[in-house]
Amino acid sequence: MENFEGIIEFVSVAESHGFSSAAKQLGCSTSHVSRQILKLEKRLGCALFARTTRLVSLTSTGLNYYHQCKELVTGLQQANEQINTQQLKLVGTLRVSAAGTFAEQQVAPALMEFALLHPELSIDIDFNSKKVNFVEDGIDFAIRYGKLEGSGLIARKLLAHPMMAVASQSYLSKYGIPKGPNDLKRHSCIVSNNDHWLFEHQGEQQNIRVQGRWKSNNAHAVVNACEQGLGIAYMPEHNFLQAVEHGRLVPILQTFWRTDSHSWVVYQNRRFLPMRARLAIDHLLAHFSK
């Protein structure tokens, strides 16, 4: 049985590119991971990693060994997870990174439902839009909005979010109603996360750089500033529905709104995704499919 000792640590170091990050992933000390790797290399009679002060990388022998070992580890994980699925008893902590009104008002309640289904599972949601390192930060998955850059991560669509441009009646009465996106260059615009607003009309996109007196990365603050007459706002429509319904804000530029914006659940290689994360993602996908 000692021939299997250190295999899990080896695969974890190979995928996380570091001993400390592997230790965080496995929930053990860095010294334990280092000892297991040294024992494994001693048994095999070869170096599996090339170590520098800043980087840990696989040797050519280590790379070949990794391709064989990852199948063994995957099989073991799947066997364990199959039993967990049958028992439907999730434990530990599910860590989620999320940001925005949609995450606060829709994703969080859906995860509360999931928590009620699994009483021994803890859920930790970090409402932060910063880029996360899934291994080092211990994040199981993230909720993100908009266009995703190529990162090698897996992204699954949760929900479409059509855009909406609005302003208060007092602002429009004073400064006029813009007829097209180019007119926004002469208006005060309320900037949220991006000062480049993308519009679409008859299959053609228009990228307009805007500016104004108010800027905030908080959707509630943007809506409030818009209601106070500080300018024109452009965000996913769910942020404005209540204000529009009660007449506090007026939709404008309707024929130019984008309809291809989405929220995503983003995570690493699904083959090494913990069961708690897999089931939580499935729960979210099923919830928003309705």
Automatic annotation (TrEMBL):
Keywords: DNA-binding, Transcription, Transcription regulation
SUPFAM superfamilies: Periplasmic binding protein-like II, Winged helix' DNA-binding domain
Listed InterPro entries: LysR-type_TF_proteobact-type, LysR_HTH_N, LysR_subst-bd, WH-like_DNA-bd_sf, WH_DNA-bd_sf
GO terms assigned for molecular function: DNA-binding transcription factor activity; sequence-specific DNA binding
GO biological process: DNA-templated transcription
HTH lysR-type domain residues: 10-59
Signal sequence extent: none
CDD domains, alphabetized: PBP2_CrgA_like
Sequence similarity: Belongs to the LysR transcriptional regulatory family.
PANTHER family the record matches: HTH-TYPE TRANSCRIPTIONAL REGULATOR, TRANSCRIPTIONAL REGULATOR-RELATED
The protein's name in its UniProt record: LysR family transcriptional regulator
Organism: Paraglaciecola psychrophila 170
